[in-house]
Amino acid sequence: MSNDLKLDLPSHLPFIDYERDFDFPVGDVFRAHKDPALLKQWLGPRGLHMEVEHYDFRTGGSYRYIHTDPAGTPYTFSGIFHTVRENESVIQTFEFGGYPDVVSIEFLTFQDLGEGRCRLVGHSVYPSIEARDGMAQSGMEGGMSEGYERLEELLAAQRVS
Amino acid sequence: MSNDLKLDLPSHLPFIDYERDFDFPVGDVFRAHKDPALLKQWLGPRGLHMEVEHYDFRTGGSYRYIHTDPAGTPYTFSGIFHTVRENESVIQTFEFGGYPDVVSIEFLTFQDLGEGRCRLVGHSVYPSIEARDGMAQSGMEGGMSEGYERLEELLAAQRVS
């Protein structure tokens, strides 16, 4: 599929770069990041339950959500929105509770490709290469791929309904 | 002076690492970062006027301040506090208005050296090496050195008074 997640982990820089195209307009994909009622239906791999503790999606707001796996183990994620620019870009911090104080900063851009399509471009910056590698080895790529597939399914279902 | 600012810019990583010792306890140096009435008396190089627009120094809070040079040119800085741990550490974002969306994340640690001394350790992480170099070439080192000298003078004056 041409819309597959493209992931790049440069070996000598503490970054995770990615791109994902969608056959949906920017407005739809942005809304699925903005509205926690939608977000909890797609973020992360299949088979986890997601609970949004709070999600104040605006410049200066903060968020915290918990993924729980089938064995009942919780994984908490939290951060702060440095910039939210409607239908354009988000800059936010990101911390996994299992690695306290290992905080990354995430730059997300929503690009209009025309003809009702869009591209999500992400640039994640970690405080060390080791921290980036730890995140990459946690099953992140599979989780992101599945998450974006679920996002696509969610938007397709909304379009039909 | 043994308390001089030590600055390290690794050539292949987008970091600015620094250390600065103070002949003052952690509590004093932390308070000078926490209280905007103190902060505005030392942050940045001599000869600039600093106005704090807001400074909500707590986990989830945000800040914005403006330095104005003698010619009247304003320089705006803003960001968000991801974590504030009293007398221990601060994790915050940092953006210079002149380079919008070039946001760094700053890890500050306050270490007790005993005998009423402390060490401030900083790790700043930029979204690219070019962004880090741009910040480093903006007169940052001189500004930081002078700022910490002013902080020392401020705390010495408070101790005397």
TrEMBL record, chains A, B:
**InterPro entries annotated for this entry?**
ASHA1/2-like_C, START-like_dom_sf
Can you give the residue ranges of the Activator of Hsp90 ATPase homologue 1/2-like C-terminal domain?
24-155
Q: What Gene3D superfamilies does its record include?
A: 3.30.530.20
| CDD domains, A to Z | SRPBCC_CalC_Aha1-like_9
Family, per entry: Belongs to the AHA1 family.
Q: What is this protein called?
A: ATPase
Protein source organism:
Arthrobacter mangrovi
